[in-house]
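Lab meeting notes turned into a lecture example. A postdoc, R.K., suggested we walk through two folding results consecutively so the class can see how the record format repeats. The first protein's sequence and structure tokens come next.
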Amino acid sequence: MSASPAPETAPAERRRVSRLTPVLLVRAAHPRQAVVTALAMAAAAAASGRAAREVGLVGVTVLVGQALLGWDNDLTDEKADRADERGTKPLVAGLDRGTLGFWLACGLLLVVPLSLSSGIDAGLAYLASLVVGILGNRLLRSGRLSFVPWAVAFALYPAYLSYGGWGGGAQGHPPTVLMTVAAAFLGVGVHVVVSLRGLVDDNRAGRRHLPLRLALRVGAPRLLVLASLYCVLVVAAIVVIGSTVGLSQSPVVG
């Protein structure tokens, strides 16, 4: 009989794999948030009656865009992550900053043509949402107005879907006001939910963004319940708006 492997072998192998550059790059992209957002946008495109190839284009575009935002987020946070010795963050765990910057540039070069492949107006709307997210990482993320970039970015998503089609010449119609407003409210709720996991580190770093302020008042467990319920209600409202008012405004007949 062969000897049993040492108990330390499997954990050591897992640690080695977890520190491989491709794995660290995926982790830095915030994959769960990226995949969920891409699937949600693709589902919204399908629900609005878009063709299968357009649904796929939306999903791929949003997945690349979300990965780009995740990489930018980690680059922005690198100094604070190293100061707090957050070993779970990819850049602290060994991912080279230059490598991450290279892939960020590649993501940017890829997301521009992908976005514009849904039409100029749709593409500009989605690219604007990415610009808002990148600026939010640097300007408003740590303060009481941290929710603003999330609200604005999500408010641009209906425009991306409503104007979108297939090919750069695609021309849709403006999104309805109710759908735009509902998407903005959803963005605020998502901001609170995704921020909860890092509240301890953010508090230690001296940040005072909206989710942290709320958590200090009501407690993190209660805030998770309230924010989740809020998101469910807003999504339900979006479904109702989509089935009644609709995603796109009706074209004006001259």
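The second example is placed directly after the first for contrast:
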Amino acid sequence: MKNVLEQNLQIRKAFYHILKNTPKAELLKIPEGYNNNIWWNIAHVVATQQNLVYGFSGLPFEVPQKLVDKFKKGTFPDGHATDEEIEQLKKLLFSTIEKTTEDYNNDVFVNFKEYTTSANVTLKNVDEAIAFNQFHEGLHLGTIFSLLKAVKL
């Protein structure tokens, strides 16, 4: 699992780079043919990781509940993000993976509630949730690359 979490950190570095180097207007723009934006995709992966790993383990989230509620599965962007929210998310990209690694190494995830994802993958334990999260974040990174091209046209 150590390798999967290290890989996840590399994906998070890509998200950070995009947040840091993309103008806010482009982060928030929803291009024609899309139903979300770069900002929503990055915030969504943080919210989803919390739900998959902490939520289904019956543990409190490491991010504000407001963030999880705003960006969880089934939500859509509202077209707004403050500079403070963007800065907060930059920090959460790393702190959540660091905390997950620490908690995993300390065997905190003991009561995982089985969950079947919208991709029809049944997660039976936290190892499977962490691995699936890696897949999920990769999908959203691909979407973000597509969005980056679309907003710069």
